[in-house]
Design goal:
890 residues, alpha+beta, ten-stranded mixed beta sheet, globular
């Protein structure tokens, strides 16, 4: 008989029983007919046929063993019995399933994020074949367009290779920007990846030639949001930074691009970059790095062979792309570069280096939460086993084996775990979406594919199974050892068995306390670090500053016109009600833009090239007053620092100390690599954060924005306001439109920009605080349950003590002493574990040491107070016990 038929028979027991009854009746009738033919009467024949057939029930069971998968039937019977047992104890089932659901759900949510960011392959053809080109080192993977064109034209390694660059385009034609996520792609992008169109056509090699027309492909999600899924979108135009691009197709639904964490809305050919940027195009610039390269090696070419061929090709590529304006020494260093390749089946992502460690830490945290939940459920099962001693004893007495009994109890544990996993999956779906929102900001939304794939499903099933075994083994083993004779006596209590079980329960509670202390210490450290970062003085005002990115939409604009428009914009916004001060700069603190340069100071000899590297910024008069950065010496910029006036600079304290020592830097001079003209230092300001809030003070030089060599069409406005900064956005938009109607504006606030810079710290602080509180709650439940269970077992003893004259306060002390022993043991173990575990979060800490005594003491105090409160209620109930009622029970 086939396995399929056996399983189907198992799933249809009533039908199988009816078929067996018919078959048995047929055999009996056949035999009876034979006997009647031999001369017996009908009644005698039927009786003799049944006798010869034998026990009908036994024959049916033997036949069933052939017709069904016996072991599977036994398992299903265990499951049905477990369901009935759980329905009989709904309170226990609810607490256990919710505890496990939170623990398993937290693990699944974090693993879903790990899977989406680190493990999942791109939704393209044969993603495992893809490789990313680098300049010899894994992190050095950004190229110029001239380099890309040389690689494209010289390579013989790849069957397909492409370049791409992320971009942010504005759909609006002026005023507040409507930003979408775009991507410049070369002609080989879609063919190499094997992506198919959902509508129209995709970009190909014919779209990737200099002077190409402005065409675009829409991402599927953007097409549905912006065009309502209208097929008529193909052939229409989409405005990208004010330039119309014809829509030629829509990408397939599953494809989001090659950058994990970023769903692309619009793809445009790389050659069309010149249409948008005009004279400021990057296509011919030899020192503007903005492209990443991915290829698919030819069949039979291994990664090692690809690396060898790329290295052989590198000298020709770099010789043909040497930046002509670089100094000879820097050009020689440039020519030493090489080419290599790294696997790229999972795509590329800036999220990975930033969040890899944080996700690993969170995985450890949720693992501790799950262990805490397991200990809690194990305690519940041990307490429930005590209440079921009679039931288990009866089953043993009527012939059930101890192994069979243990299997039944393990089945109940696994069923609880699987029910918890079902709850956990629902929790994980909500939780993982919440985590993505924590990773996102208004200006930088993170998109991740959080669908449950085979890897996440397998992880959840594995965790649920392991969890069920972890918390179910000890109770099953203990329960299967019950003494039937002792359990059957109505009032008998096995003192040794009860003491042994209570010892195990107390050990589990001490373990819960230890795990909770680790979680609370970690949460306290991370919350303290986040608070330090969120409240430190960055050298400028954190609040009350509106930042406005202004793009004049005039590529190649003349310097004089750019300055005139800038002054006109500043005059308008300074006159707005609610604006206390306004300025403009090229770089805003702790923002996305950076600018550095090498400076040369008379009398200072750098130890290396990087030793003379400083941060740079250009600003208008009033910048430091607007930002709240104190002027320590000298003067601010003035309107006299005009394009034709002597070049001046203001430096921060760190630069003054490093390059000028103890002497006054005022009146001293320096020059930069990018400009041979000398700059006179006219002021010194306090240090301010430039890239991150964590950084130590770095040398920074400020120059007048009006004295920059090339003004460009973009700058940032800083507005110090009387009220909420965001409330002025509409007024600022109208004021700028009076001067430059086509200008594109991006609004944010200084506080939002700073908050975005500490997203990993915020994520860890919020989640560690939540999971620390959850671990504390589970420990309190376990401690309360164990103490209550201990008091229940000792009711007779406590009743006798009270009857003999024991003070009720002494009873309270006795119970609380037991609580204190469990908590103290757990805290000692937890402190040791926490000292080791805090090394995992050391890199995330700021202003607090991993072994900070105050944090450990605070965590222990909180845990002690909560544990005391959990033990106080059972102790109070024990003290109010009626001794006569307790003795009557005995």
């Amino acid at each position: 008989m086939s396995w399929y038929k056996r399983v189907m028979n198992l799933l249809r027991p009533e039908r199988l029983s009816r078929e067996l009854d018919r078959e048995i009746a047929f055999h009996v009738a056949e035999r009876a007919d034979e006997l009647m033919a031999a001369g017996m009467s009908e009644a005698q024949a039927l009786r003799e046929a049944r006798r010869r057939f034998g026990n009908v029930v036994l024959q049916k069971e033997r036949t069933r063993e052939v017709d069904v998968v016996r072991w599977l039937e036994s398992v299903l019977a265990d499951v049905r019995y477990a369901l009935r047992a759980l329905r009989a104890s709904p309170g226990f089932a609810l607490v256990a399933v919710l505890s496990l659901g939170l623990g398993i759900g937290a693990n699944t949510a974090i693993f879903s994020l790990i899977d989406a960011v680190l493990l999942r392959s791109l939704p393209v053809e044969r993603p495992e074949e893809l490789v990313k080109l680098t300049m010899g080192e894994p992190g050095n993977d950004v190229f110029t367009n001239p380099q890309w064109e040389q690689v494209r034209d010289r390579q013989d390694v790849f069957s397909g290779v492409f370049a791409f660059s992320g971009e942010s385009w504005d759909l609006a034609t002026g005023g507040a920007a409507r930003r979408i996520r775009g991507e410049w792609v070369s002609g080989g992008f879609f063919p190499t990846l094997g992506v198919r169109p959902a509508l129209g056509r995709l970009l190909g090699p014919r779209d990737d030639v200099r002077g190409c027309p402005a065409v675009a492909v829409l991402g599927h999600g953007f097409w549905e949001r912006e065009y309502g899924g209208d097929p008529g979108a193909v052939g229409r135009t989409v405005s990208l930074d004010g330039h119309p691009f014809e829509v030629v197709g829509v990408a397939e639904p599953a494809f989001f691009g090659v950058e994990v964490g970023r769903a692309v809305d619009v793809y445009a050919p790389l050659c069309a970059e010149a249409i948008v940027r005009g004279k400021d195009s990057f296509l011919d610039r030899r020192s503007t790095w903005f492209l990443q390269l991915i290829g698919r090696p030819r069949p039979g070419v291994s990664l090692a062979q690809a690396r060898t061929r790329l290295a052989a090709m590198a000298p020709a590529v770099f010789s043909a792309t040497v930046p002509a304006d670089w100094k000879p020494g820097t050009q020689r260093e440039y020519l030493k570069r090489t080419l290599s390749a790294e696997p790229a089946g999972q795509g590329v992502s800036p999220l990975r280096p930033r969040y890899r460690h944080a996700l690993a830490v969170l995985m450890v945290v949720v693992g501790l939460v799950l262990l805490n939940a397991c200990a809690n459920v194990a305690n519940l099962l041990l307490a429930r086993a005590t209440a079921r001693r009679r039931e288990l004893a009866v089953r043993l007495a009527i012939g059930a084996g101890r192994g069979r009994l243990a299997r039944q109890l393990l089945t109940e544990s696994l069923l609880l775990s699987l029910l918890g996993a079902a709850v956990g999956v629902a929790f994980a779906r909500w939780g993982s979406a919440l985590l993505v929102r924590l990773l996102s900001t208004r200006a930088d939304a993170v998109w991740l594919d959080l669908s449950i794939d085979g890897r996440v499903l397998g992880f959840t099933i594995a965790v649920a199974t392991l969890t069920g075994l972890l918390f179910g083994l000890a109770p099953a083993w203990r329960s299967a050892r019950v003494d039937p004779q002792a359990a059957m006596r109505a009032s008998a209590r096995s003192v040794a068995e009860g003491h042994s079980r209570l010892t195990l329960v107390k050990a589990l509670v001490a373990g819960q306390v230890a795990l909770s202390l680790v979680l609370v210490v970690g949460a306290a450290l991370l919350l303290g670090s986040f608070r330090n970062l969120a409240t430190l003085d960055p050298g400028f005002r954190r609040t009350g500053i509106l930042l406005v990115g202004v793009d004049l939409k005039e590529p190649g604009i003349a310097d004089a016109r750019a300055l005139a428009l800038l002054r006109g914009v500043l005059d308008r916004v300074r006159a707005l009600p609610g604006v206390r001060a306004a300025s403009a700069s090229r770089v805003t603190p702790v923002g996305p833009a950076r600018w550095n340069d090498i400076i040369h100071v008379d009398g200072y000899t750098p130890s290396s090239t990087n030793d003379a590297l400083v941060w740079m910024n250009s600003a208008t008069p009033g910048f430091f007053a607007t930002m709240g950065t104190r002027l320590l010496a000298g003067r601010d910029f003035t309107d006299h620092d005009a394009p034709g006036a002597p070049r001046v600079a203001i430096i921060n304290r760190a630069l003054a100390t490093k390059f000028f020592g103890a002497s006054s830097p005022l009146g001293r001079r320096f020059r930069t690599d990018s400009n041979e003209a000398w700059l006179e230092v006219v002021g010194v300001v306090e240090d301010a954060k430039y890239v991150t809030l964590r950084e130590q003070p770095s040398p920074t030089a400020y120059v007048p924005l009006s004295q920059e060599d090339h003004q460009g069409a973009w700058f940032s406005l800083e507005l110090r306001t009387d009220g909420p900064p965001a409330a002025l956005a509409r007024s600022v938009e109208n004021a700028v439109a009076e001067v430059v109607p086509a200008a594109s504006l991006d609004f944010t606030t200084m506080s939002d920009q700073l908050a975005a810079s500490i997203r990993p710290e915020r994520l860890l602080a919020v989640l560690s605080g939540f999971f620390g509180a959850l671990g504390l709650l589970l420990a309190v439940i376990g401690l309360y349950g164990t103490t209550a269970y201990s008091v229940t077992r000792r009711r007779s003893e406590i009743g006798i003590r009270i009857a003999l004259g024991a003070m009720r306060t002494r009873v309270v002390r006795m119970v609380m002493r037991e609580v204190g022993v469990m908590v103290a043991a757990g805290m000692i173990l937890g402190a040791l574990l926490a000292l080791a575990a805090t090394r995992l979060v050391a890199s995330f800490l700021f202003g607090v040491a991993p072994g900070d005594p105050a944090t450990f003491a605070l965590a222990a105090l909180v845990l002690g107070l909560v544990a005391g409160a959990a033990g106080a209620l059972p102790a109070w109930r024990a003290a109010r016990l009626d001794p006569m009622a307790a003795l009557r029970e005995e």
